[in-house]
Amino acid sequence: MAEIHLTINGQSHTLDAPPMARLLDVLRHDLGLTGTKEGCGEGECGACSVILDGVLVNSCLVPILQANGATICTIEGVAQDGQLHPVQQSFLKHGGAQCGICTPGMTLAALQILEKNPHPSLDEIKEGLSGNLCRCTGYQKIFEAVHKTYAETAK
What we know:
CATH superfamily of the largest domain: Beta-grasp domain
Radius of gyration: 15 Å
Low-confidence stretches: none
Order of helices and strands: EEHEEEHHHH
Largest sheet: 5 strands, mixed
Strand content: 15-25%
CATH architecture of the largest domain: Roll
Shape: globular
Strand order of the largest sheet: 2-1-5-3-4
Distance between the termini: 51 Å
CATH class of the largest domain: Alpha Beta
Helix content: 25-40%
């Protein structure tokens, strides 16, 4: 076991975990942050995406020891003061979410895209979301939701 120190969604956590435990499992099982989903367990689908020290990562591929001392944002940390983030609002408004398995990872990927460029082109959105798979929407509504986030928040 290793003593692990994390800052998750602005809160400090210290816990004991096997060094090679997946960050995904620690988030879901030890810390109760179940918004991060397990899809494939191989880093191919993006359902388990979190932002680790400012970088979007697949938490199913990150050993907890590698995350020691990190700052992590999960989907639970996106809404503030009971208010959905504009990206989350746009996903709802434009039908970018259906079953919900990919939605947390897609949302965090969208945040990363919009942080780099608040008015991305369709190609930039497609590239930024390319590590996230969705089996329900056909992607078009997700692309629209991300694209319209900027326009709707600039009003």
